[in-house]
Amino acid sequence: MNVLVVDDEPLLRFHLQKMLSELWLDIDNVVTAGSGVEALKLTEEVDPFAIFMDIKMPGLSGLETAKKMRERGYTGHLVFVTAYDEHAIEAFEQEAIDYLLKPLDENRLLICIERLKKQSQQVTYEIDEQSLNRLLHLSDGVSETGSRLRWINAHQGDKLHVIDVYDVRCFIAEDKYTTVVADQEYLIRTSIKQLAISLKNDEFWRIHRSIIVQVKMIEKVLKDDAGRLFVHLRGVTKPLPVSRANTHLFKQM
């Protein structure tokens, strides 16, 4: 089983090749390429099980190279490696199985290797919103344990959007889905309960069993004639109810 590493920087290419050789004992060879053009040629020669590819390269970028590989019939597993995270959506459009951020963290790479091992054993492994969130939320090399949600991977129609959690005004649970209200509305399957655990509780408040709001987005809190509190968020027309069990959150306001 061969693995291909594609990066135009020799030191980074060597570093990843060494890490993969040490951490993934099941593979036979770790082949390297310094450009997209070289990678296209090697892919046809060695038929790699997985390709770890830098996105920003002179000439053919990693994304352009991946597209050409798919057009030529490559059906193996793509892992993109980059110092930038703004290309996440494009990466997953090329059916990438993972997305690693530089500088590479050994624990993070191990998570990726485990995912690839599952594929080699022909085990179905579905990428849902929650697991995708964990994959993309590792720009600081933080382990999954005790980490906090940084990116929301949400659907709008048939398109996947990667949203900065700090652009979210609120989360509203509705039936089997949760609506993410940011500049527009999106859908995720993650429950309000799970979000409450994953978000920083000093920045996101659960004001109702079905609603979480970002505190900095609160414009005002008003009380109606019955004494019920309603939160008004910037950019959100409809006021959101506060359950009686959560009115204590606003005692200092």
Ordered list of secondary-structure elements with their pairings:
Elements lengths: L1 E5 L3 H14 L5 E5 L2 H11 L3 E5 L7 H10 L5 E6 L5 H6 L2 E6 L4 H15 L8 H8 L14 E6 L2 E6 L5 E5 L2 E5 L3 E4 L3 H7 L5 E5 L2 E4 L3 E6 L5 E5 L6 E2 L12
Helix pairs in contact: 2-3
Q: What is the number of helices?
A: 7
Q: Strand order, main sheet: write it out.
A: 2-1-3-4-5
CATH architecture classification name of the largest domain? 3-Layer(aba) Sandwich
- How much of the sequence is in beta strands? 25-35%
Q: Which runs of at least 5 residues are low in confidence (pLDDT < 50)? A: 122-132, 134-147
Indicate the overall shape. elongated
Notes on the protein architecture:
This protein is of the alpha/beta class. It has two domains: 2-125, Response regulator (Rossmann fold, 3-Layer(aba) Sandwich); 151-250, Beta Barrel (OB fold (Dihydrolipoamide Acetyltransferase, E2P)). The chain has helices spanning 10-23, 36-46, 62-71, 88-93, 106-120, 129-136, 192-198; strands at 2-6, 29-33, 50-54, 77-82, 96-101, 151-156, 159-164, 170-174, 177-181, 185-188, 204-208, 211-214, 218-223, 229-233, 240-241. The strands form four sheets. Strands 2-1-3-4-5 form a five-stranded parallel β-sheet, with helices on both faces. It has a five-stranded antiparallel β-sheet with strand order 10-9-8-12-11, with helices on one face. A three-stranded antiparallel β-sheet has the order 13-14-15, with no helix packed on it. Strand 14 and strand 15 (240-241) form a beta hairpin. 32% of the residues are buried.
